[in-house]
Each structure stands twice: as C-alpha cells, then as structure tokens.
Design brief:
The protein is 52% helix and 7% strand. By secondary structure, the protein is an alpha/beta fold. The protein has a single domain, classed as Alpha-Beta Barrel (TIM Barrel). The strands form 2 sheets. Strands 3-4-5-6-7-8 form a 6-stranded parallel β-sheet, with helices on both faces. Helix 13 links the parallel strand 4 and strand 5. Helix 10 crosses helix 11, helix 10 packs across helix 12 and helix 16 packs parallel to helix 17. The longest helix has 35 residues. The protein starts with a helix and ends with a helix. The mean pLDDT is 96.
Length: 414
C-alpha cells in the first residue's frame, strides 16, 4: 500500500504532467467544490463554518474520507464572519447577518466604490486613493482612514500626518484594523494547519498557491461596477487604460511575491467580464486582453502555473489564449465548447472542465458517466486535460459526484 507521501507525490506529478501536455498515468480530477462539502457532510451549516472556521475540519474530512481528488481545496471559500463584522464590510451579505437561511452561500454586492470623476485621483496615487476613499467606502468601521495622508510628510509635513493619529475616528479605525487583522491571522493559521492535515491524512496537495484576477475585472468588480466600467470604455477610455496599467503593475509583483515557494504552483485567475456576451472582440482586444496576457505571462515565467478559470463562454476568444507561454498554463472552461477549445489549444496549453453542473445536480448517474467519458475521449488524447465541473459545485447528487470520480478512476487510466 502506498504511503501518504507517495500518494501526494503521485498526485503532484499527475497534475504537473497534464499541465505540461504529458499524458499522465491517469486523467487528473480536480473539482472546484464550493458549498457541496457542507451539504454532503450534513453536520454543520455554511453559517457555522463562517462563524467558527475550525468546524470546517469535520466537513472537509467527511468529503475527503470519500472523495480523493488529485488537488484539494482547504476551507478558504468559507470566509470568517468575525473579521467582516468587525471591519464593517459593506459589499458582502452572509448568513447569520443578512440571510435567515443558514445554508445560503454568501453574496457579493457590486457598487460604485470609485466615482467616474475620481479616475485622475486613482491614477495619480493609487495607494492614497485606496486608503482615503476605497477603504472607508468598503468598510464602515474604517472611516478614519479618510483622514490619513502620508504623501506630504517630508520635512515638517510629518507633523500634520502624525497629528491625525490623535483623532478619535482615526484611533477607532486603527483599533478595528488590529482586531480584524488578528482574526484574519487566526484564520490563515488554521488554513495552513488544514493543508498540512490534508497531506498527512489524505496524501492530498492543495489546489492553489494564490488567486488573481484580470486587471480589468479588478477595477470593474471592486471599484466601478460592471455597468459603469462597460460605459467607461466609451466615456473614459484613456483614463481606464491608464488605471489598468497601474493595477497590472502591482498585481503582477504582489502575485509572484505571494505565491512563490508554496506547496503547489497553481495561481487561479478568476475571469469575469471578458466573456463573449459582455464585450465585442474590438473592446476585448483593447481593454481586457493585453493586461491579462502580460499578467499571465509574467506569472508563468516566474515559475508558477496560471490556472485561468474562464467563466462564461470564450468561444470567440480562444485564439488569444495561444499568446501566453506554451505548456505553462491551464485553462479551465465553464461553458466554452470543449471541442473548439481542444482544437485551438492542442499542443499549446492544458484544458480543464467542464462536466455539466446540471447533470451533476439533476441528471442521472449514466448521464454523468457518458459525459465524462465523452470529455476524456475528446480532450485527453495527447495529454493536457483535467476533469472538473463546469461551475463551482454547490447542489449536486452525491451519487453523481461518485459517478464522475469513478469514471475518471477507471476510464481515465492511460
């Protein structure tokens, strides 16, 4: 019988081979589980895990006692509610505070956290803008940060900056940061402990080194909102492009610094607004792709492996994906036609996906078996394919998840 270290090493190699377009001993399976572990374990609720993150050990152990993916999630998707409450997070809604249903997954609420006329401020000094404007708008208990300014502290300017620390609102904001920071540190320590537990008990590598987003999406998701950034492409194109360049620069440096040296090299890029339905090819080529291409390329060249989670459809964007370094990226597709993806990226990049969530949640076992076999037949020849669900798994029939795993473990062997 293989030791846990041998299982761990085999899984690391299996996924690495697929990423490099080498046919592994078996097609890897790396499902993106979200709420499903809670529903499967039936011991705690989503609210329980957010209120007391260490309860997630029971939930994920129940999952991994039964399912053995080649890379696994730790409980990072269940954000701790204590720091969100303490900081006064304005753009999240979660069970126990906003929802009566204890098993409702948290929801993100878009807003205009940077006004249209504030582009020049953000372009001139993104750090000052984030501290004085974005943070107070995003966290109701950090309003005192609006009174802080370190830009003009040279010579005797430091006196004004220091004097601001006497303001009660500033003091309260800094106490909030201390409290929230300690809560987050406790959570990060637990996640590290659970990753070590995954290795020791299950021989399972973690699925991620870190997370990243398209620079366009970083501005659109968290600063301008979808509708506003789409109109900015017409009303403020030069300002938008200038801010994208600034965001791209620090995002690349921070990602490489934060993800290098981790147990696995996978940096998950979550793409949102570049889908076929959201913008024209002309706009994609001008606003979305150049910064994302640079981001992916520099992360890959730093020795990390971008896993580009392509939400929506990219049927008209596939040719662009060949412009990043070959055999160094994984493209995980949700609704993109996998035959088109295989044809476009064959010999260039590993593809991943996209077992229908509808089949997993509502279909019959044979539907899942047939779909997984079809995807393996289509995508696995020549290497470069990893099985995953089309979307993050919440509601699904356990017997259908069983069928997905069993089919990979038998039909997916070399």
């Amino acid at each position: 019988m293989a030791t846990m270290q041998e299982l761990y090493d085999a899984r690391v190699k299996r996924v690495a081979d697929a990423a490099q377009l080498i046919e592994p001993d078996r097609v890897p399976i790396v499902p993106v589980f979200q709420a499903f572990p809670v529903f499967y374990a039936k011991k705690w609720t989503i609210q329980n895990l957010m209120d007391d993150p260490r309860k997630a050990t029971d939930v994920y152990d129940a999952l991994y006692d039964h399912y053995q993916p080649d890379l696994g999630w730790d409980p990072i998707l269940f954000f701790p509610s204590n720091y969100m409450e303490r900081a006064g997070l304005t753009w999240f809604r979660w069970p126990g505070k906003h929802f009566d249903d204890v098993n409702t997954m948290y929801q993100y609420i878009e807003g205009e956290y940077m006004k249209a006329d504030e582009y020049p401020e953000a372009i001139m000094d993104i750090t000052k803008f984030m501290m004085n404007k974005w943070m107070p708008r995003s966290f109701s208990n950090l309003s005192g940060l609006a009174k802080m300014d370190f830009r003009n502290t040279m010579w005797f300017g430091h006196m004004g900056a220091m004097a601001a620390f006497s303001d009660p609102e500033v003091i309260e904001s800094f106490q909030t940061l201390v409290d929230a920071g300690k809560m987050l540190l406790d959570w990060f320590i637990y996640l590290g402990e659970y990753q070590a537990h995954m290795k020791e008990k299950y021989g399972m590598p973690p699925l991620y080194a870190g997370f990243a987003y398209a620079p366009y999406d970083m501005i659109g998701d968290s600063m301008r909102g979808t509708v506003d950034i789409l109109t900015d492409m017409y009303d403020r194109p030069d300002e938008l492009l200038a801010l994208i360049d600034i965001v791209t620069e620090f995002a690349i440096k921070d990602t490489i610094a934060g993800c290098s040296g981790k147990a696995t090299p996978y940096v998950w890029f979550w793409l949102h607004k570049g889908v076929d339905e959201f913008m024209s090819d002309e706009m994609f080529k001008k606003f979305y792709w150049p910064s994302l291409r640079r981001y992916i390329t520099e992360v890959a060249e730093a020795g990390l492996t971008p896993v580009v989670y392509v939400e929506g459809k990219y049927n008209t964007r596939l040719e662009y994906l060949t412009e990043v370094p070959a055999k160094k990226c994984i493209f995980n597709f949700e609704y993109t036609d996998m035959a088109k993806a295989k044809k476009a990226l064959d010999g260039h990049s590993c593809i991943m996906g996209n077992v229908s969530h509808f089949n997993l949640a509502y279909g019959k076992k044979e539907d899942v078996v047939n779909e997984v076999k079809g995807l393996i037949d289509l995508c696995a020849p020549g290497g470069g394919y990893i099985v995953d669900s089309a979307t993050m798994i919440d509601d699904a029939k356990p017997e259908n998840i069983d069928a997905m795993f069993e089919t990979v473990f038998t039909y997916g062997k070399k």
